[in-house]
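Narrative progress, year one. The postdoctoral researcher (J.K.) led the effort to move from monomer predictions toward full complexes, under supervision of the PI. The following entry was the first complex the group processed end to end, covering 492 residues in total.
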Amino acid sequence: MKTSRIKLLYLIITLIILSGCDMLGYHPYDCKIEGETGLTLKNIEKIEAKEYGDTLRFAVISDTQRWYDDLNDAVRAINSHSEISFVINCGDLSDFGATDEFMWQRDIMQRLKMPYICIIGNHDMIGTGESAYKEIFGSLNFTFKGGRTLFVCLNTNALEEKYMDEAPDFKFLQDALDMHRDDVDNTFVVIHAQPGSEQFNNNVKEQFHNFIQKFPGLQCCLSGHGHTYRDEALFNDSIHYIMCPCIHKREFFIFTAANGNYSYERVGF
Amino acid sequence: MKEWDFKHIIAFALLLLAIIPQPASAMDTTEKKSGSKAHKTIKADRGKWYRALVPKSIVAQYAGNIGAVSAGVEWSYGKNGRWGTSILFGCIPRYYSSCSKATTTLKQRFTPYTIDINEHIVFKPFECGLFLNTIMNGEFWVKAPSKYPDGYYGFATRVRTNIYIGQRLDLLLPEKYSEQIKSLSLYYELSTCDFHIVSYATNSKYLDLGDLFCLGLGMKVNF
């Protein structure tokens, strides 16, 4: 009788441990990443392989941190728009920079039917966040093309690195400009923190603004960070800085770029 | 930063060696050898006082939100040692981050029930408690550095508050060993930290309890 009870006990404990083995966790900041990695490059490949006619449509979301339920609903809503070619997330995927946060966000974004791109936000640089971002997504600065439209994606979170990193990286901008000067007609710049915000290196905000205008057919500069919708000509010229609200506001943008112009629609879900 | 971490690990290892408990029998023999009765009482008293400070267990743990592997000591008290306070030092391998990290954990345990399975096995069907874990790395902070505006990040990256529940099995050693080591414990615990609790609280549709809790497995040598 007693031995059978012990056997049962051992069996129960073994079952608990076996069933929980995928739950073994080292630390919230362990940077132990499982599942898909290098997604920026993988998705750029998919975006650039697509055929684009005269019109390019893409969706923009931002500041999805710690709003998994809302992001999940947004993904469902975006999936119902088959005309959207790809999705841009303007950053702040994590709130604390914890490794699980990035994996949860990635797993939701992976449910998108179309490829997606994630920019690094200031919250993504906390703790081991930047390393997790680099592993799961990729470089902090990158460009990609949708047909003959160039997207320049930049890290502008200068405050996070005490202004010691090149944020924004003018060398990167110059190289991107040299490379794409002749093979694109329009350009969108995508950043997380706008010029003038506490994260941006405001010592060079004018230079930044002047530099991005060198890109062929600069349309506008997309950003997040402020958690509210804003569309302003920050430097009182024709270039608009459009801020996408956080996902908790339950809103995303659908951008349409055609004939050297752009328009966008704010879509609630 | 790397050197700094390495120094910490060595310091912890030395500290650990220093506080590893002496077997109780070693103290008993010195008492037996001592001369007069008065001397004996003083010795015995000192032994008692000293014994309260000496940890009751050495603990080793795998995973469980405090590092990949951790080791430390525990002081248990109360009836059947139902309360326990432990300090553990752990390390988090580098993985994709810039360096490996050392951690320190202060843990408070409560084990209310004891079931004697037979004369060799005691089952503790429910344990719970809380622990604080700090990452010993200069890139993590308790209060956000002064470069940020006031109240910019309202949390500490360096210190995590965790709660846990678990179960434990005590294997009592035969009498001929029990002077040195009384028993061995095997335990598991499911723990979750403040970050995950906050995430779950506002996202109960997408996240489930499995996302929230993480498993740790451990062993104790009880003196």
